[in-house]
Amino acid sequence: MMPAETTKTSAMTGFVARTQTPSEWRAVTASILTLVEEATFDVTSEGITFRAMDPSHVALVDLFWPSSGFEKFECTKADKFTVRVEDFTKLVRRAESKDSIEISRQATDSLVMKLGSRREFELHLIESNQSNTPLPKLSFNSKFTIIEPAFDRVLNDISVVSSHITIETKKDTITFSGKGDTGKATVTLDRAGQDIPELDVKEESKATYSIEYLLKITKAAGSASDMINFEYSSKMPLRMEFKLGEASKGGRIHFYLAPRVQE
Asked: Is there a single domain that holds both residue 155 and residue 54?
């Protein structure tokens, strides 16, 4: 009886994806929750992907999580599932720090999530209302990497006086600044410091972005990544990259943030 039941369940399952710890899923769900209420994930033999733009069209999130980034990954056929992000996040948050998380599709209208070896949840799926979201075609003149705590500190410093932050890159320095009714704040980091492992400036660049979005994004995705990679050009969208797990095997979350039109 047992082997027959196992075979039947396996045939019904479109995919199984398991991580050793909940940290990656926490970062993914928290990141998506900052922008949208519903999320449609695409699952293929190559891995899991997701892309969506927030209702105001200010920010876009793009997830690529390859099969190699999971402890276990099986996909018998391409699939997609849509969830209310808040509901999905609540289940992920129930995981303890050492719990594995395994998600699988065992029916057309539900997703099964196993936390560790003893707890199992079933989440009802919803119909997708999302349309395809194309990626912006951009060329980046400035690239830099900053350690996550340092960028968090910069954002909090500038937010004391402003709701927007101006990023200006030169050959050897990055200057963050903001101004408001109460005054002005400036933080300068240079290539020689430990906070910036990488700085590549093809052309000096300057653009202004919303601190509110940056704070939400960094808080959500920063927990899974010690470093944040940035790419941008003057008065153009900013792309932030957060790594999931090991850089060689794990996935990444890209955030695109539109610049402030009037500087």
From this structure: no
Tell me which residue range forms the domain holding 105: 2-124
pLDDT tens-digit readout, 81-103: 999 999 999 999 999 999 999 99
**Local structure of residue 193 (DSSP, 8 states):** S
Q: Indicate the average pLDDT of the chain.
A: 90
Paired tokens of 175 = 């200057």
Q: How many residues does the chain have?
A: 263
Higher-confidence position of 263 and 120: 120
- The per-residue pLDDT for 125 is 95
**Residue 134 within a domain:** no
Q: Does residue 163 sit in the same domain as residue 105?
A: no
Phi, psi of 210 (to 5 degrees): -75, 125
Q: State the Cα–Cα distance between residues 128 and 141, nearest whole angstrom.
A: 37
Nearest Cα to Cα of residue 186 among 200, 194, 176: 176
- Do 43 and 15 form a contact (C-beta atoms < 8 A)? yes
The two tokens of residue 244 are 């999931």
Query: pTM for this structure?
Result: 0.89
Structure tokens at 131: 């349309």
Does residue 120 lie in a domain region?
A: yes
CATH number for the domain harbouring residue 86: 3.10.150.10
Domain CATH number, residue 209: 3.70.10.10
